[in-house]
């Protein structure tokens, strides 16, 4: 399998990456938003501070106004507490904000003083602020008021709720605060803004410490922004592990899918390779006989592309046109599930018109759920096998026919040979008797006629025998250049199956470079077959000897001859000589005719050769024949 590109392998990281980008985006957005909000808060804070400062200033200016009016009202009066208390503005001022009203002379000596008992007096615990107004030209009125009360009265409630409003001196000391418990320490840095408020504020001209650089400071009580960020962090902290877990799960899932896909691909490739390389044609059909699938071998077999075949219903394009009815009938039988288990033979037609013989095996086609959905057919092309079988059968028939003819010829020859003598004897005796009767002067026409007919009949019988022999042995050996090895190989080929069946191994050991001989290949083949078959016959009834039943056919050049040996490891000849074995009708087999070796000998001798037989020292028999090398055949060739 080729390694997949890095990009494809790390695709599962994409959601995680995207989530990270998203989270970063959200965080950046939160930050930007926060900065915006802070800026806005700052703006509001500044404007609130300025407006507070303005309001305080107004308030002080207002108080200053009240004081100035009071001072003007006192011009010309003698300074006394009673004179002060008599003024309604003093009471109103003390109720409002003032702590005390002091009347000073030009040298700042107290002439009269009135103190309040209101809230201003209660807050008299630290630094006080002052307002002054001249009383004519010979005194000054000084009003003392607590900065805390100024803040309380001068700062609107909604600002006081939103901000800690404080008066701070140059040393950062809080002079007064709108709240009793400032939150500064508890809640870290909070946005605040300072506005100088020195102008309208006066420290007491009586006190040593002067309030020089006082400022108004507004501090936001609850910035509200900080709450967003932790929440964002919590969300991100929760979100990222979740996304990471989801990505990991995705990756696992992807791996599983990948593995399954790889397995599937491998299997598909295997299956395709197997199907395509198979010598067996495959076809799948549903119960209606519709072709669902065909492999390449099937297409090649019938000479049609898969597209033409798949989906096709019977009659099939590969059915021979002359056998539609028979094929339809058989198809019905097969689809009903009655096809023979051991397969059946059929005749199909290739798209080119050529006929082919096939062997078909049907088996149930089962889907993934184990349900049968049709039939799977495996088809083997047996055309060639059939042809070979046919040829072999014909060869064997021809051989048997030839063998029978040869044997009959031999029988006839032997009979003629055997009968010729008695017939000649009969004819001579007849002639002798006729002569004797003539000498004796017997003129009996009847006897003489009978004797004459006797002679004629004997001659006739001789002729009939001769004719039959002639008829049966018309086949003269054809001496042609023939390759002995080819002849032996052909003979062994014919015997091989028979030997296998009998459990006999038939080996061939041919010496190289054996020249061609002039011989009748068919007859020599018969000799080899006969000798090998005799050996197999001798071996078969015995328990197999050590090393198994074995026949070896070998060849070699010996002087002017080629010699062929057929050796077995059977019982051997037990001292019998070739003459005895070759005698016509000599056989030790229950159904033997005893002509085989006789015929072999005639054939070999007709080729100027010699047939011989001997026992093998290690057990078994050795039959051999030799044929002269490229010699002209004898002019009076044997009649076989
Ligand atoms: P048939 O095969 O009809 O018996 P044959 O002439 O071919 O006639 O053989 C004659 C006899 O020779 C056989 O019956 C058998 O006894 C003997 N014979 C032939 N070949 C062998 C052999 N290889 N081993 C032992 N005996 C053999």
What would you say about this model in short?
The chain is α+β, with helices and mostly antiparallel strands and 640 residues long.
Q: What's the alpha carbon Rg, rounded to whole Å?
A: 70 Å
**Strands side by side in the biggest sheet:** 10-9-13-12-11
Query: Beta fraction of the residues?
Result: 15-25%
What is the helical fraction, as a range of percent? 40-55%
Number of strands: 20
Shape: rod-shaped
Secondary-structure-based class equals alpha+beta
> How would a textbook summarize the main sheet?
5 strands, antiparallel
Average pLDDT: 84
Low-confidence stretches: 633-640
Count of the separate structural domains: 4
Report the end-to-end length measured between terminal Cα atoms: 73 Å
Quickly count the helices: 17
- Small molecules bound in the structure, each named once: adenosine-5'-diphosphate
What order do the helices and strands come in, and which of them pair?
Layout: H1 6-9, H2 13-74, H3 81-86, H4 88-96, E1 100-104, E2 110-115, H5 119-122, E3 129-134, E4 140-145, H6 147-154, H7 157-162, E5 163-168, E6 174-177, E7 192-196, E8 215-220, H8 228-277, E9 281-286, E10 291-294, H9 296-302, H10 306-309, H11 324-335, E11 344-349, E12 355-366, E13 372-381, H12 383-439, H13 445-472, E14 480-482, H14 484-502, E15 504-510, E16 517-519, H15 521-539, E17 549-558, E18 561-568, H16 578-582, H17 596-606, E19 610-615, E20 621-628
Parallel strand pairs: 15-17
Antiparallel strand pairs: 1-2, 1-4, 3-4, 5-6, 5-8, 7-8, 9-10, 9-13, 11-12, 12-13, 14-16, 17-18, 18-20, 19-20
Helix pairs in contact: 2-6, 2-8, 12-13, 14-15, 15-17
The chain binds adenosine-5'-diphosphate.
Domain PAS: 266-338
Transmembrane segments: 12-32, 231-249
Catalytic activity: ATP + protein L-histidine = ADP + protein N-phospho-L-histidine
